[in-house]
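Troubleshooting entry. Yesterday's outputs looked truncated, so today I'm pasting the complete records for two proteins to confirm everything comes through intact. If either block looks cut off, that's the bug. Protein one:
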Amino acid sequence: MTLHVRSVRNARLTTCNYGLSRVAFRGPRRPTDGAYVACIGSSETFARNVTQPFPNLLEDRTGTVCINLGQQMAGPDLFLQDDAVRALIHDASAMVLQVMGAANLSNRFYKVHPRRNDRFIAPKPALRQLYPDVDFTGVAFTGHLLTKLVEKDPVRFSQVRAVLQRSWVRRMRQLVGLAKGPVHLLWFAPRDPRSPAVDGHDPNLVTPKMLGALEEAGAKLTTVIYEGCPGALPQSPDADDHRRVASALSKAMGRGLK
């Protein structure tokens, strides 16, 4: 086990690794030799600026170990490509799967970093052919990339959006399929899941139809909407929001996890 410590505002944030995974997850490291809940997600789950993220609070409420496998700006690729995480998902008594945005994944138009999924690595030939008038030099992040493509031509961007959405559904369903226990799909975002998926609004590009595809695969949706900090980008949930998530998930799961 590798343990790292860094500051979170006035608190000490520990990170750790599980198995042979190279990804530094939010600590403290939790035991995996008994029943546990695997909490998969992005920045909201990792909760860099919150001392007690919802997995900690959910463990207190349910009495079952909850492993925080959230990662900053993660997409489904990070978890699907990590054998240690795949094993943790399979062996878990239940999984919480946060709804992540659809931009941070490799697809037929572009490639992202395998662990830092918000990092744009390179365009693929299909994207260069679709956007021959775009210079990708200096584009380092997927958010910057998508903004650039939309501004250049929103009609052409509709093709990129469709590919991202199909890829997201396919890979999120793969994550759901890894779990042998119940899957609790968590919408933890600053917008209502029934609202239109406006480009750039987290979870980026995700629509009600896409969520429905995961529910059809057996996931049960829990929704917590937060306001975030006015004027701050990106918006992030506070301690009260994490308490609301823990409360909602514990009710959805019941007390039968032990």
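Protein two, checking that the full record survives here as well:
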Amino acid sequence: MKKILLSLVVVLCAAQVQSQTLGEFKTKVDNFGTKPKKKSSKKIYINSFNVMVEVYREDIDYKGKREFRGKGRAEATSQAALGLLGVDGELLQQKTDQLYSEFIEDLKAKGFQIMTSDQVKDVDYYRKSVAFKGPMVRESANPGMLEIIPTSFSGFTSEKNAEGKKSQKSGLFPGLNGASKLVRNTNMLSKQLDDAIVIDVNLALTWSETGGSWFAGLGGANAQVKTNLALGEKAVSAPNENGKSKGKEDYYILPNDFVVAQGSGLKKVTWKGYLKKPIGISGVIQDTKVQSYNKGNVATSYDIGNMYKVTSWTSSISENAKFVEVDGEQFSEALYMSGKAFIKDQLNYLFDQYKL
């Protein structure tokens, strides 16, 4: 998959840019602490600013062998794949840089002071961390995704994440994944920075919807991928690569949130802002669906003598892959427009909480 992904990030001649529209959206904030005090520190440290963009997706379905009195169908595996052509890595980097620089400028315009990585590098919170800087457009450990870091971002992260090996793969209880952002306890980092405000930003631009028809799946393996471009938290699936279970998929929860932490103990300020539902974006990707259906070969039975009946089964795989071309400029603009709308909404909430 890595070679496929890297080949997708190509620069094509710009086609005529068509209009694109953001759908209506609503945000929600979960508060886990108290409200900021009037004399709270107005220093801010940006702990992370991560952007995920989807460029490729696979779906797989498996149906086991079915047999009754020597008749039935063989096992069947169906796979569908859909990717984007025309994605421009340089433009995605530029739009990510624009989002980040405007984010910083908006904070400064309201009187906040931005702390640099040099000012925080010696705190105990980062004792086992390594330096992490932009610019960066790379294949993510989350299958089918590109990871983008702003050019002017400079911070710290785990060695595993710095090497591009950390994913958002969900565990036994994926529903708890949304709380994992707070488990890192950035309030502890804030405490070590004299109660500075610590902010983490995650953006996820995705377009795939996977899973075949339930009705069609009754008769055989049915895989499907279709397009629906949106910004927001998303659970994506990818075929399991260990080969131990046929048709098994792994799931990855891609966050899209704005997390703020300040202080510690009973007076800590902690909240997480997120979209109630993804921001739909129209006019960028042509509505496309790729589907694969496989019933499995019919069983063939024959007698050997008078005592044994042998049923011959043959497994079969049906594959159907497709690529849809997008305008690189238009696609990157969709990232900027949707990301800007979300960040602006979250900043308005922040400014309301910290009225200077």
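Both blocks look complete. Sanity check on protein two: The chain has eight helices and 23 strands.
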